[in-house]
Every structure is written in structure tokens, then in C-alpha cells.
Specification:
By secondary structure, the chain is mainly α. Helix content is 71%, strand content 6%.
């Protein structure tokens, strides 16, 4: 049985909790909404999902990489990356090749068709970013970048 003081303290801590003000929730909601706005700009034309775009973006920037590296770079779970890769491979946007040092691993990269789609989407991504950032001053943009870097570093510390 829990002491009454413990129950009172717990009730006091939860009484003023507001999800709308909870930082992880706010970051998640903002990220999801931005992703949906961006997806609306490329999904109709290219028929790719948000996870598929994220994998393509990482491959466009860093290829060749393994699926594990794609998971790390996108911060998506293995199942979601695996499904995205399966679709991208099936549609001919991604190709796989054996790893030169470890035959158990595959190296993934964009095909010519995938690079063409990537090249078409990147300007849309930059445009959306510019639209989002247009509501901030140059100083605020710099501050936002610094704060996000600090939060990301802190999350890495907490994961470790």
C-alpha cells in the first residue's frame, strides 16, 4: 500500500500537466504537421510516402549506405525503413549491391530513376523550408538552429 503523502504528491504533479505544453508532444505534433504539408506536395506527383522520402533523402545525401545506417540517419525503426526500402526497390528508385568488406551487408543507393525523383523533390523541400522560416527573423533562425542542435545532442546523451 502506498503512503498517503506519496499519492498526494503524485496527484499534485499530474494535476497541472498539460499535454499541449509538453515539449516532446509539441515537437512531435510540429514535425508531423510539417511532414504532412511537405508530403502533400510530393505524394500526388511521385506516389511516395513520408518514410520513403526520408530514406531517399538519406540515400541522396550519403549513398552508398546500409539499411542500418539508413535507420540511424532517419531515426526511424527498422521495420519502417525495411518497408520503405522494399517499396523503393520494387519501384526501381533504389538499388542494392554487396558490401565490399562484408558480404552479409548490402550497400544501398539511388538508381538513375531514383536520383531523378530526388532531384525533383529537393527544390520542393527547400521551398517549404523557406516558407516555414520566412516567419522568423535571421536571428531567430540562427537561434532555432542552435537550440535544435542542443536538444538533439541532449537526446543522444539520454539515449546513451
Amino acid at each position: 500500500m502506498r503512503p498517503a503523502a506519496s499519492v498526494d504528491l503524485q496527484a499534485e504533479e499530474t494535476e497541472d500537466f498539460r499535454l499541449a505544453g509538453f515539449l516532446p508532444y509539441r515537437l512531435s505534433v510540429t514535425t508531423n504537421r510539417v511532414s504532412r504539408v511537405f508530403a502533400a506536395r510530393y505524394t500526388r506527383e511521385f506516389g511516395i510516402s513520408i518514410p520513403e522520402w526520408r530514406v531517399m533523402a538519406v540515400l541522396g545525401e550519403r549513398a552508398p549506405i546500409s539499411s542500418n545506417e539508413a535507420c540511424d540517419a532517419t531515426a526511424m525503426d527498422k521495420a519502417k525503413v525495411s518497408r520503405a526500402l522494399a517499396t523503393l526497390l520494387h519501384r526501381g528508385f533504389v538499388k542494392k549491391a554487396p558490401h565490399p568488406d562484408d558480404q552479409r551487408l548490402l550497400r544501398l543507393s539511388l538508381t538513375a530513376k531514383g536520383r531523378k525523383v530526388y532531384a525533383a523533390i529537393v527544390p520542393r523541400a527547400r521551398q517549404l523550408e523557406a516558407e516555414l522560416m520566412s516567419g522568423l527573423t535571421a536571428s531567430e533562425r540562427g537561434q532555432l538552429d542552435r537550440l535544435l542542435d542542443k536538444l538533439q545532442a541532449r537526446v543522444v546523451d539520454l539515449e546513451g
